[in-house]
Design goal:
single chain; 151 residues; mainly alpha
Amino acid sequence: MAQKLKEAPAEEGNITQLVMHSAQQIWLAGLGAFAKAQAEGTKLFESLVKEGEAVQARAGKVVHVQATQFGKSAAGAWDKLEQVFEERVSKSLNRLGVPTYADIQALSKHVNELNESVQELLKSSKGGGEHAPKRTSKGAAKPSKEASGPA
């Protein structure tokens, strides 16, 4: 640019013309830059879009991994919370005297065993076993609605 300024027609002592010539060159340079940017702008835009898509894909993978990890930790926390809740409810019900499912099953099994023993004793006794009604284990295994209490 310094060379072009020197080549500019300058009259002796006329700085105004030199400034006008420099301003015109600056203007033309700006127009040239604008034209070049306009011509190459589409290429630049397309390359920026491709780079943006690549960044978005990488970010999507990172977000997916983090979301998966978060989901696993949240599921673990819910499982723990559920276990703690069940234990506390069970303890509270035991304090109130409500039997657990396992208690009822054990009692039912014991009743069935006793029923079988009674039936064997009745059969082995003289004359009393043939006329006694025989109970089935199905009837003893199911608790009645009144015995189970409110839900």
